[in-house]
Amino acid sequence: MNYLAHFHLAQQLASHSGLDRQGLLIGGLLGDFVKGPLRGDYPAAWEVGIRLHRRIDALTDSHPRVTECLDALPTNFRRYGGIMLDVCFDHCLSLRWDELHPSPLTHFTQDCYQHVLPNKDQYPRAAARQIGFLADYDVLSKMGDWDNIEGMLARIAKRIPRESPLSYCGPELARQLPYIEQQFLALYPALQEQLFTEFNGNGPS
Questions:
Q1: DSSP tag of 199
Q2: CB-CB neighbours of 123 under 10 Å
Q3: What is the pLDDT of residues 2-55, one digit of tens each?
Q4: The whole model's pTM is what?
Q5: CA–CA separation, 126 and 153 (whole Å)
Q6: CA separation for the pair 108, 199 (Å, rounded)
Q7: Could you please report the per-residue DSSP string of 106-162?
Q8: How many CB atoms lie within 10 A of CB 68?
């Protein structure tokens, strides 16, 4: 899952469990940038959010639906297939947004930025740059546009030192999108239920 899904799952869990919403949203960002054991370097609510982010990634990466999607990709795509699917899943979520959330997507994304931006000076530098970029261009509200998906994959490709198919995989992913969406729609509610079950208190350590 990419940022839109991480933020959506964080908000859903906060509503379900009573956990700190802002902390879970911040962790939804920081989970990509904070590595290693969590030892209290950040506020406790943020670290719960980071653990949530890590758990979402672990459950998604190990899910049979994701494995089936990866197996359907061309062989030369599979090394980077996880990145491709993360971005595609955000696209699928955006397309189904009105079925999954009561507020318009643009309202949701602005609310997320307002919760996450104020503390950016306390984030790792790369995380502060990322949330600034997402907010300045309201990237998350535009994930339903396939051109933006291809653009995001191309930007990720520029950050990878070795050659990758991320800059040209768009047409093949678009061809497979009905299958990817089918798998996403089976995966996502199961993922929500699993997280609701696990994060009754502070969640897995």
A1: -
A2: 22
A3: 999 999 999 999 999 999 999 999 999 999 999 999 999 999 999 999 999 999
A4: 0.95
A5: 18
A6: 22
A7: HHHHHHHHHHHGGGGGGS-HHHHHHHHHHHHTTGGGGTTSHHHHHHHHHHHHHHSSS
A8: 14
Q: What are phi and psi of 33, to 5 degrees?
A: -125, -15
**Strand extents, DSSP E, 8-66:** none
The tokens for 27 are: 């962790």
Q: What is the CA radius of gyration of the chain?
A: 16
For the chain, the straight-line distance linking the first and the last C-alpha, in angstroms and rounded, comes to 20
CB 131 within 8 A of CB 29: yes
Q: Report yes or no: 51 and 198 within 8 Å, Cβ to Cβ.
A: no
Per-residue model confidence as pLDDT tens digits over 64-119: 999 999 999 999 999 999 999 999 999 999 999 999 999 999 999 999 999 999 99
Extents of the domains making up the chain = 3-196
